[in-house]
């Protein structure tokens, strides 16, 4: 009898051990490796740390998956375009046309925004009109937009789920093979947060590593002087190397609006005609300019601020001399301002191997 | 067994008595908060009142407010024995975006009676040379050729000019500067100290401070927006007028204990 009892206890113990092991064992279990963004000195010296959502921390596997998805045409309806089609690394992650063409050959209404230093957008309002309240939410939109990728998230998830490699990549990044659109955009957002540009000539000048020419220095003076360009109130300064205030303004492009911008998002008529202040980094690679790509060259942009302002009810009070058309810069100051602006461009950003397909 | 029970009882009693004392002590640390409200000669102003030309200044010009943010620093509490508790802090009040209208000082202020509580509008010259990453991120800087440092206030809006046309104004207060360029000079200081008077801190305390926005245009200098509207940063005379008018802008509205 005692023998039977011992046998029963032994079997019971073995079963319980076996059960524990089955629940905890996974031959494919890989823990995503956390990644800390390498923050450039020019940023850590001057501005607040980047915004990394706690619900989507950066990992090696998540960033790698996001990069692959960013360049993969699998997201579009007919699988002919990817995110990179309108956000090309060679153009600082924008394209070179006023507006972009979707899979059906239809032009959009807005200029593709360049993508860099996005983790330093502190209020997390993305897109020209601020309609996207996080990078993750932004990445959801183009996939189903009928004049962009014109796809369906259900179809995209199905294609990813049936792909020979993506389920494994999602498991490595998010510890699940169950692919969802939420995880897909999380991965893309992780990759986008790694797109850091902070190696312009002006950055090196600020760090004491190089000198500016007389013309560049005069251009900086024009940029900063309230009685000349007065650009710094919206576009930052050497102390704010993002070269944007991450805010929304009506900069006087139009007297009447065909595109309400932020106003269409908030419903507040006081926001009509307001668009996001773009960073002035990488202007050498991001023409054409403005939310609708109306200006092909930097000269046109500078001429506009100098003499082309259009008055309207919501024009920002920071726009000077509106009745005279703008700040009335001399030809020399215009030329110098352009040279200074080009010193904010960072060619190494275009060739960074981590950002290539 | 009896000894153990007695020990447990005594220990428990000690803990209870300690807890009880702490909860009822008047020496408990109290939270102190600065709250900022804004008005136009007594009529409350908040961001929903922005963007509409509805205010009339002392000079008779009608105007709107589109942006209002300002920094205050160096909050001090002076005890009855004239010891000064200097918090060496700062706060960017942004009425446009309704941020930092409450400035929580936490439990830094010991309960007691204070002869005076004060703050500095803007930064004193030493603090103005420091590097504040949050203010840089908010693009609140003043360019180096204008003396560097930070704005004390950005107050932007529109007014009806003498031809009844809408025009822009940028009432930006900074450290007054002459000779903009490589070697700017400073004719006089334009930050100023605001004294709120005696205040008692016991329980959690709210110090409610009001800014009368109309006062920026009122006294001792009646402000003429047709003359002084934009490009005021390099105008040291305008900065000194702002400094003189600003001294009458803030007042202690009330102190409440919770």
How would you summarize this macromolecular structure in one to three sentences?
The complex is a heterodimer of chains A (357) and B (258). Chain A is mostly helical and 357 residues long.
- If you compute it from the alpha carbons, what radius of gyration of chain A comes out, rounded to the nearest whole angstrom? 25 Å
CATH level 1 name of the largest domain in chain A: Mainly Alpha
Q: What count of helical segments of chain A does DSSP give?
A: 15
Q: Provide the number of structural domains of chain B.
A: 1
What does this structure look like?
The complex is a heterodimer of chains A (357) and B (258). Chain A has 15 helices and two strands. Chain A is mainly alpha-helical and 357 residues long. Chain A folds into two domains: 156 residues, Cytochrome c-like domain (Cytochrome Bc1 Complex, Chain D, domain 2, Orthogonal Bundle), CATH 1.10.760; 149 residues, Cytochrome c-like domain (Cytochrome Bc1 Complex, Chain D, domain 2, Orthogonal Bundle), CATH 1.10.760.10. Chain A is globular and about 65 Å long. In chain B, strands 3, 4, 5, 6, 8, 9, 10 and 11 form an eight-stranded antiparallel β-sheet that branches. In chain B, strands 1, 2, 7, 12 and 13 form a five-stranded mixed β-sheet that branches. With 258 residues, chain B is an alpha+beta fold. The N terminus of chain B is likely disordered. At the A-B interface, α11 of A face α2, β9 and β10 of B.
